[in-house]
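Lab notebook, bench 4. Continuing the backlog of folding jobs that were queued last week. Each job is logged with the same field layout so the records can be merged later without manual cleanup. Today's entry covers Protein kinase, a 685-residue chain. Filled in by technician R.K.

JOB TYPE: sequence-to-structure
TARGET: Protein kinase
LENGTH: 685
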Amino acid sequence: MRPLTPDEPDRLGGFRLIAHLGSGDLGAVYLGVSPDGRPAAVRAVRRDFAADPGFRTGFARDAAEASLVRGRFTPPLLGHDLSAEHPWVATGFVAGPCLRDLVRGGGPLPESSLLLLARGLAEALERLHGQGCVHRDLSPAHVLVDAAGPRLIGLGIGRALADSAALRDSRPPAYTAPEYLAGRTVLPAGDLFSLGSVLLFAATGRAPFDAGPVSGADDPAAVVRRVLREPPDLSGLPDALRDLVGACLDKLPENRPTAARLLDELGGPLPEEPPEPDWLPPRSRAAVTRAEESYRSVAAPVLGPLPRPGFDPFPVSAAPGPRRRGRVLLRLCAVLAVLLLIGVAGVYTLSGPRGGSGPAASACPLRNGVAESLPPPEDPQVDFSADTLVELSFSPDGATLAVATNDGVTLWDWRSSLAVAHLPNDRALLPPAPAAFSPDGCLVAQASRQGALVTDLATGRSRTVAAERQVLATAFSPDGGELALATDGGPGHGYLHLYDTVSWEETGSLSGSGALADVRYTRDGRTVAAGESGGGVVAWRTSGEHRIGVVRDRSGAGAGAFDVVPGDGGVLVPRGDRVLLVDPSTDREVREFVPDQGHGVPVDVVYSASSDLVLAALLGPGTDEAGMAVWDFASGAPEDTQWTPPALFPVAISPDGSRVAGVRQETGDIAVYDMEMTLMGLLAG
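JOB STATUS: finished
OUTPUT FIELD FOLLOWS
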């Protein structure tokens, strides 16, 4: 860290710059001050990179993903503007060196330090993957180390590097999963491979597939060959980590542990209190101390002292960021995600989004959880027999469950079993369609025989979108910029129609191959898919709005009986006596999930991002058989549990994948469970 020179900028975006931190491939990095006086690392992105369409596209999507992630080991993305005269990106500031420099300067870390490092990074990846995100570029350069532990940085850059022709080759091959090098699907398992490489480097000072100590002199092509074909060199690892790192470095992604399982094997999340100062060896601790002293000498007069170890240095607070209106998805994906992350106050109204409060919190001014102009029914329905038509959906924060029936939608605080609001719909479909929440939870859209009914929970006012069409399903895009409508009959039959949530005008349509009756976006915003009433599932890539392909057969399952895995993971569909993961671009089966005999056949399926599990509702046609099957997504193997999953149908999964709700087939009531199938709530009126 050094003071600025006269040739350097003193402001980027709304951040005042006070010191130079260093430089990288993308440009110089500065210590900045946000408008509310908090420190930030502000990168001046080189104009040629900011102008690279591949980089801009990848960054926009990654920025939307990064906005969903928050944890003590992941400094947040605070703002960015690649279209500014001086492009910039700002993240939370960490007063510590990167792991690469720490090990090169102070030598390999001892076992106790490695275990703390591993637990912190595994927790960071668990949170990241739980939001349906993948880092893609985990390496020692993207791990900062301060007195409180490791910090995983680089969120928002991984896909930009992958999508940019100019930067694609800058990713170090020794830390890149073999499936990435071979050009195959990006999955969370790739981050576990990278984590194994990072931990081996921290323990030995070398990467697992390099010929010698990491020096940058090894031929990259030779490293790639070793990553693809040769086993890793695990010598020098302590016994406590050897098997775990070896499992992470398995060539086959399905053989690697998930971040959650790795964290469990390591002893679970670290305690809330900060570690003792001697968690690092003396030479490494001295490097952290030097970084802190550099901060104090240059920045403390402006920013004050460093937060004490363990204090959250990244509280949600207002920070600058570009505000642009319009339907262009990539721009909204990046801009609105940043606004959601930094907590800009605002709510959706029927004139469109004015900002966001993040997917995990509601910006609606509700009193005691109730929209005053939308009173709940005096005697809400809580018993749903087998012939009762009902659909369920969670709010973005998972705290509210929407129960859609033939007279509208009732909103429940499922933890307290309290009905909090009712949204009437005298034009509801039979069967009803699941209600769709906007990302901030303030708008609810219902399908109807005459358009989509969109209700503002803050005011109780409603408006009809596409009144000239029968709308069979609705979904808001994760950035809040679009409302997607599946329609039946009339103009545009067989298309997914997109409406701007600012103007509520139609801005485009996506071609299907038949009548569409259910819609859902992946949480990362990369893919939108719709179930066809004839039995298929069509998927589109939101970037460029082109069709990926069609999954042709779901063996008679309902239009909503499918789920889409974030990233390039594919579509989950029931087919016959099993669930299949299908690549929609080829309609080829990638993996199968087979339930035990005697519990029925799959009629609905959901994917849990938080646990990397696949859950299927099972029913026996013409019988009383019912149950639920649970599998590990990566391997397709049945989940080894000590509990018997309840028989639920229909089912709904919370956006973060931590809760599942459904109608219990034995009792006819609606229950909410966690991923251990512990009963969390019951709608009892």
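OBSERVATION: The chain has 13 helices and 38 strands.
SIGNED: R.K.
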